[in-house]
Amino acid sequence: MMCTKITFDKLPEAVAYLIQSVSELKTLIEEKELTPTEKRLPIGIDEASRIIQKAKPTIYALVRKGVLPSYKRGKKLFFFEDELIEWIAKGKRKTVDEVRAEMVTGMYLKPKKR
């Protein structure tokens, strides 16, 4: 039923159509919720070095310092790709304009009274 004008006579048909559509939407939503979400698969050091574009010894040093997010099972290191990408994003350097904006806002902040 795809009519643009709903008259009093066609009201029962319109309500039935809406009920059927809502039922179909509910079914689709329930099916979507039941499907398993994408799993986070651990990756090894070779893949991690490719993602962050650093040599293996550098990665080992960063892990040893606790800078790079990693997991260890036995003698093997594991990483998650999304954590490595987030780690890269956190290393963003501020532009000159961003530093100036911080300085200006910092100059106008009043110190807390003790």
N-to-C CA distance: 70 Å
Strand content: 5-15%
- Write down how many β-strands occur, each being a DSSP E stretch of 2 or more residues: 2
Q: Number of helical segments? A: 5
How much is the radius of gyration in Å? 28 Å
Average pLDDT score: 85
Features:
single chain, two-stranded antiparallel ribbon, about 110 residues, mainly alpha
Structure description:
With 114 residues, this protein is mainly α. It has a domain at 45-93. 57% of the residues lie in helices and 5% in strands. The protein is built from five helices and two strands. Strands 1-2 form a two-stranded antiparallel ribbon. Strand 1 and strand 2 (76-78) form a beta hairpin. The mean pLDDT is 85.
Mind sketching the topology for me?
Elements: H1 11-34, H2 45-52, H3 56-65, E1 71-73, E2 76-78, H4 81-90, H5 96-108
Antiparallel strand pairs: 1-2
In short:
The chain has helices spanning 11-34, 45-52, 56-65, 81-90, 96-108; strands at 71-73, 76-78. The chain is mostly helical.
